[in-house]
Design brief:
By secondary structure, this protein is α+β, with helices and mostly antiparallel strands. Helices cover 16% and strands 22% of the residues.
């Protein structure tokens, strides 16, 4: 089993000015499973296509996507997401919290410290990427709203606007898109709300302007264009549970020993590579997150 992601030693953290000199080290850390904090300039040069050692190329990350609000194939989101308006944008936090709030996104971003993290991403269909995300920890953000003891689960909901998201005019899924986490999963330091990738703002097809990233789970936990977060006492019913309960469970932990009813999960194809590699339990983050599921049957609770 690959070593899970560990915090990068302090002496290896890359400052923004040291990015270029640190790329080789970043590539090495990806190979060994380290959590990499990358430094980027605030904005990319116009027209530039950034490269990060060990990461999936920008062109693939931004053109091969799941975003059902814009189509069910991998290429439609990049072709159709131009209709999405990402400003103004609000994000509400509500439910079992003592400090509910509706945030203007720019106000929120001015109040948080953004980090750049290189995370592996595994999709249930058998493909994977390594993506340099920019974001902030979901757990720390939730703590600002003072959750009550009743907060056992976190529900995240995508924008519902068929004018902007044309595939919401179909019944391919029950809209709006809903995902959920247990509160301890949401508080884990690896779970982030991402607002950028490759050091720049999120492209629309990648879930602009704010999305969930939980690197030890299959990609359908990556709810995009989030407008509402609710803390709940009861477990929310997620979109994929509702659509296909025999195929998609609530937990969505990467587990190669549990095949999808229509294909095996034992192998994956890293986009940009030839051939396949073995899928790793918890996507390689087991040392970090396995304790969250102690005593659970990971074949039943998939």
């Amino acid at each position: 089993m690959a070593k899970s992601l560990e915090p990068t030693p302090k002496h290896l953290y890359l400052s923004r000015r040291a990015l270029l000199s640190g790329l080789a080290a970043a590539g090495s850390m990806v190979a060994t499973g380290a959590l990499v904090h990358l430094g980027f300039s605030r904005r990319r040069a116009v027209g530039a296509r950034p490269r990060v050692a060990g990461a999936t190329p920008w062109e693939d990350v931004t053109t091969y996507n799941n975003f059902y609000e814009f189509g069910t194939d991998k290429y439609s989101p990049a072709q159709r997401a131009g209709s999405l308006r990402t400003r103004p944008w609000t994000l509400s936090v509500e439910g079992a919290v003592r400090r509910p709030r509706v945030w203007d996104l720019d106000t929120l971003l001015a109040s948080v410290t953004l980090e750049d993290r290189l995370y592996r991403f595994r999709c249930v269909e058998g493909w994977s990427m390594v993506i340099p995300w920019r974001g902030f920890e979901l757990g720390a953000f939730l703590a600002r709203h003072d959750p009550t003891s009743a907060a056992k689960f976190v529900e995240l909901v995508t924008l519902h606007d068929p004018e902007q998201m044309p595939n919401q005019r179909t019944d391919v899924l029950d809209w709006p898109y809903v995902e959920g986490l247990r509160i301890d999963e949401a508080r884990h330091r690896l779970a982030i709300l991402a607002v950028g990738l490759y050091g720049d703002s999120l492209p629309k097809q990648n879930g602009a302007p704010i999305r969930l990233v939980v690197p030890w789970k299959y990609g359908f936990k990556s709810v995009k264009s989030v407008v509402r977060i609710r803390l709940l006492e009861e477990r929310p019913r997620t979109t994929w549970e509702a659509a296909a309960p025999d195929e998609y469970g609530f937990y969505a932990n990467v587990n190669p020993a549990v095949p999808h009813p229509r294909w095996s999960q034992a192998k994956e194809r890293r986009i940009g590579e030839l051939g396949k590699r073995d899928t790793v339990l918890f996507n390689g983050y087991g040392d970090e997150v396995a304790s969250l599921y102690a005593g659970m049957d990971l074949r039943k609770d998939f």
